[in-house]
């Protein structure tokens, strides 16, 4: 596709439900990142994939958060047993470069509201 | 996080010039980005600085001083559509897409 596509754009979950957020990066982009953006804050890093390998997951806030990218393209961020503090916009970004600073292309995000 | 500081809000009028400052801790520094984010939309790339000096791109310019841990984004000939949040983001270490963002500066441009 022309840009990074995320779905759903909006998700409302009851506390304790599991949610799955999908990211379709720009075709051919090797690197994929997930960020979490709380209201009024800048995005915070969650995890990073290079192709299908998850190279850094140090930003995941708890073991309820899990991300995968099994075939090196589409990625899914899963949040189990959602809590109110998980309410945020989850941004996915992709980049074509691995060995040098490349521009990150962000999707519009998935806004999660946990009631 | 990571002590990236920028003003929370700024206002200016159409046609004016505005400078948004960003300061950061210099340890592990490996480059600095500026992004623009309209409400409810994706952050979009404005500029990237890794060496000292000024990078100019149309109405927008970005400056970096590595030794001082300081950058600014300069917006000229302001337009109403420039009303947005401007995010300063720093790269540290070797994961070059792992950005440490400031909280963003909400710029409002008045007619």
Question: Could you please describe the fold and organization of this structure?
Answer:
The complex is a heterodimer of chains A (115) and B (111). Chain A has 115 residues and is an all-beta fold. Chain A contains no helices and eleven strands. In chain A, the strands form two sheets. In chain A, strands 2, 4, 5, 6, 9, 10 and 11 form a seven-stranded mixed sheet that branches. A four-stranded antiparallel sheet of chain A has the order 1-3-8-7, with no helix packed on it. In chain A, strand 7 (65-68) and strand 8 (75-79) form a beta hairpin. The model of chain A has no long low-confidence stretch (mean pLDDT 93). In chain B, strands 1, 3, 4, 8, 9 and 10 form a six-stranded mixed sheet that branches. A four-stranded antiparallel sheet of chain B has the order 2-7-6-5, with no helix packed on it. Chain B has no helices and ten strands. The mean pLDDT of chain B is 93. With 111 residues, chain B is an all-beta fold.
Structure summary:
By secondary structure, chain A is mainly β.
């Amino acid at each position: 596709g022309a840009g990074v596509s995320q779905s759903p754009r909006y998700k409302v979950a009851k506390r304790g439900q599991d949610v799955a957020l999908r990211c379709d990066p720009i075709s051919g982009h090797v690197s994929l990142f997930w960020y979490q953006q709380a209201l009024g804050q800048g995005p915070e890093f969650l995890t990073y994939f290079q192709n299908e390998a998850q190279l850094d997951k140090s930003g995941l806030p708890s073991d309820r958060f899990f991300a995968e990218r099994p075939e090196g393209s589409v990625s899914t961020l899963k949040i189990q047993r959602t809590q109110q503090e998980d309410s945020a916009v989850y941004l996915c970004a992709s980049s074509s470069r691995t060995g040098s600073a490349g521009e990150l292309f962000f999707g519009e995000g998935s806004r999660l509201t946990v009631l | 996080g990571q002590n990236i500081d920028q003003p929370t809000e700024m206002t200016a009028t159409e046609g004016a010039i505005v400078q948004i400052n960003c300061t950061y801790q210099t340890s592990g520094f490996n480059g600095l980005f500026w992004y623009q984010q309209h409400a409810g939309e994706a952050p979009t790339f404005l500029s990237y600085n890794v060496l000292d000096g000024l990078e100019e791109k149309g109405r927008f310019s970005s400056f970096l001083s590595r030794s001082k841990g300081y950058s600014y984004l300069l917006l000229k000939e302001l337009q109403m559509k420039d009303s947005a949040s401007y995010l300063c983001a720093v790269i540290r270490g070797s994961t070059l897409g792992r950005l440490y963002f400031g909280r963003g500066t909400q710029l409002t441009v008045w007619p």
